[in-house]
């Protein structure tokens, strides 16, 4: 991109922002009215345009409950679905849910495992698999940070299975490379032994 193109692009962005920012809530009300007229309701968009994006709908109290109860069984945790307030009042945060269910030790191991899967996703050389991993990660993990449970998230489990399958394939490739090297080394050692005995 040439310098002239960059300057023009910067000016255009500045003009758009100069119009949008002062009129943000008016534009938002127009968008909300239109969405309402076609029967579309979105809590997130409504909160964004009502200047109430950080409203937690009571999740803070739920998180406090689970965080305080987590210390009652810190080693092994409460188990899957153990100690939940009720069916709809699960932790609403995947990290809290993991530590609450599995305790500090196993929860830490699982969170490190998820972090490694996340990092591995960026190093994936197969573009199709990398794109699939990004898609299923993007539609599961961010939403699980504020709502839902990992037990009921199909997208989360697809992400895990694709990641684990990728690790399994990589492990098999490494295994076969090592196995082939071992065969080569044995033949090489045998040849040396035979040549020395002559």
What structural keywords apply?
mainly alpha, 2 domains, flat, disordered C terminus
Give the SSE map.
Blueprint: H1 3-20, H2 24-37, H3 43-49, H4 59-70, H5 94-123, H6 127-144, H7 154-197
Helix pairs in contact: 2-3, 4-5, 5-6, 6-7
Largest sheet: none
How much beta, percentage-wise? under 5%
Structural class: mainly alpha
Note the quaternary state here: single chain
Per DSSP, the total helix count is 7
Q: How many structural domains can be distinguished in the coordinates? A: 2
What is the average per-residue confidence, as pLDDT, rounded to a whole number?
A: 80
Shape: flat
How many whole angstroms does the radius of gyration measure?
27 Å
Helix and strand succession?
A: HHHHHHH
Textual characterization of the structure:
The protein has 198 residues and is mainly α. Helices cover 72% and strands 0% of the residues. It contains seven helices and no strands. It has helices spanning 3-20, 24-37, 43-49, 59-70, 94-123, 127-144, 154-197. Mean pLDDT is 80; it is low at 184-198.
